[in-house]
UniProtKB/TrEMBL annotation:
Residues 1-77 form the FAM86 N-terminal domain. It holds the Pfam family Methyltransf_16. GO terms for cellular component: protein-containing complex. It comes from Cyprinus carpio carpio. This is Eukaryotic elongation factor 2 lysine methyltransferase. One of its GO terms (molecular function) is methyltransferase activity. One of its GO terms (biological process) is methylation. Belongs to the class I-like SAM-binding methyltransferase superfamily. EEF2KMT family. Keywords: Methyltransferase, S-adenosyl-L-methionine, Transferase.
Length: 258
């Protein structure tokens, strides 16, 4: 999926002026609506309708030939039943495709802004950042969706060396030490791979800024760095105050190196 205004529509117009329209349309459909990834892990029905409608509108501006194949494709999605689940596919630099199943109800919320106006919304299990992609809540439906996504991604991957599992974790029953070892270990392993990658001529600079809410947990993170053979230095340079935030909080920035 990509935003419709990001499609190379101008190049489509040039193609239509120089080639047979029917051949162009068939080629476009084979790379989008009829692509194996789209057939196996289709994007939302609404998105498919918008895409084909926009494609027809753009082609009609320049093409003189009938667009039966396009109207047939649009007819199929117009008659299709609404779905609760869709897929979003991300193309990696390696050429692999990662398709993740998502619930389409978020689109419903965006369209019904009047329901949420002047309301306070508490969203549960909505992590962000590196650990947000790994952890979620303990709802069995969410855990099953994670398992399905992992199975789907591993099935599409050529490598058989990957080993990923989904575990249920009760956050109220784990100790600070267990929590640190789970959350920080994932981040530290990633940083270690970045800083020790032999394929890079120049290693990246790694800086981490953190609000120190729990000194014990923050010290645990630094111990995880040491155990992984990574060193760090605290950045003490003064900075210009540009962005508004609670300056009473303890904020520390460190530079990490191998």
């Amino acid at each position: 999926m990509s935003f419709l205004n990001n499609f190379p529509w101008d190049s489509l117009h040039i193609e239509i002026m120089t080639k047979t329209t029917s051949d162009i349309i068939v080629d476009i459909l084979q790379k989008t609506r009829l692509h194996p990834i789209c057939l196996k892990n289709p994007p939302s029905l609404k998105y498919r309708r918008h895409f084909l409608t926009e494609l027809i509108k753009r082609v009609e501006m320049f093409a003189a030939e009938p667009l039966d194949v396009l109207y047939e494709a649009l007819g199929e999605v117009m008659c299709a039943l609404e779905e609760d689940m869709c897929y979003k596919t991300y193309l990696l630099p390696t050429g692999d495709a990662v398709s993740l199943a998502e619930n389409v109800r978020s689109e419903w919320a965006v369209e019904k802004t009047h329901i949420f106006t002047n309301k306070t919304v508490l969203e549960l299990g909505s992590g962000i950042g590196l650990t947000g992609y790994i952890f979620s809540d303990r709802h069995q439906t969410v855990l099953q969706r994670l398992k399905d996504n992992i199975t789907n991604c591993l099935t599409n991957c050529d490598s058989n060396s990957a080993s990923v599992c989904v575990e249920e974790l009760d956050w109220e029953k784990v100790s600070d030490e267990q929590l640190c070892s789970v959350v920080y270990a994932c981040l530290v392993r990633l940083l270690s791979r970045l800083l020790n990658c032999k394929a890079q001529e120049e290693h990246p600079d790694v800086y981490i800024a953190s609000t120190v809410r729990n000194p014990q947990m923050y010290d645990c993170f630094k111990k995880e760095l040491e155990m992984a053979g990574l060193s760090h230095v605290v950045m003490t340079d003064s900075v210009t105050q540009v962005f508004p935030y609670n300056r009473a909080s303890t904020i520390e920035m460190i530079k990490i190196y191998a």
